[in-house]
Write the structure tokens for this entry.
Amino acid sequence: MLLSGTQFIKILSDVFLNVITKYKKFSIQKKLENNKNEIYNKTKVPLNEIKFHWIERKGGEKLENNEAPKGIRTLQRAIDILNCFHEEDRELTLTEISQKIELAKSTTTRLLSTLESNHFVEKNPMTAKYRLGRQLYFIGHVAGQSIELRPVAEPTMKRLRNQTKETVNLYVLDGNHRTCVQQYESTQSVKHMVSIGQKLPLTVGAGGKTLLAHQEKDYIENVMGEQPMIHSKVDLKNELNKIVEEKYAISVDEREAGTSAAASPVFDIDGNITAALSVSGPSSRFNPNELPELKTSLVAAAVEISNNLGYPFHFNQAQGK
């Protein structure tokens, strides 16, 4: 799984800012500790009674009395440059960058030169504009490898379960079947559940059809030829096309009598389906009048998980993905 430049920069920024904050706090604490006797001798005021204040810098930025060392400031400025780039501004001129980070062009040029030599940015020879470099792609790939589906999906699934009060499942493709890899049970006494690790068909059930709908045609044909179906191939294909378009599937009494489910796809950063998010329960509680509200909550949850995995769009921005 790959992270976009913007997503990687956010991760990098969070890490560096955390380091900077800890470093600044440590530096101030160490300096005060080393000089506390000198401070007391000069002021005759106990150190714990001395009040320290913020200094307001032009532009609204607040700094502690002891600014970060030059190396830390340079690092922060480099991060600020990387943060200038996003989906709407993939290429920027030197002037645009210097204005965004509020630094002189000469300083910005030196920073860009260092970033360029390390392939964090590159200059378009045709436009003389800067853009994010390939090194971010490589590091983003490594960072993307560490993003696991279940931990990312967990808070969203819990919230969806609390909203719907029904069982929420996460299914992934497993050969020619689907497997439940995570589940949050309904809060109600009568509920629908499947076993974690249980393999289920793709041709019946909302979760299965959601995964099947986003596969290649040959794969779909093969699965339809070997798994149970409650409709004709033509009808199922039409339903799969609708699922791709709407990013939503519904099933009533398909895999089990008296059980209904709804599902929505979860995509990774490349726009490939990585899971199906499902809400299931007794058919008696799947009131047709309440299904639009369920669909809204379910699709929003699937979008949230997808975005947290690196998928950069809302579903209505990426029809056919």
Remarks:
- The beta strands are 55-56, 62-63, 121-123, 130-132, 167-174, 177-184, 199-200, 249-252, 259-267, 273-282.
- Residues 5-145 form a domain with the Arc Repressor Mutant, subunit A fold (CATH 1.10.10.10).
- The chain has two domains: 5-145, 149-317.
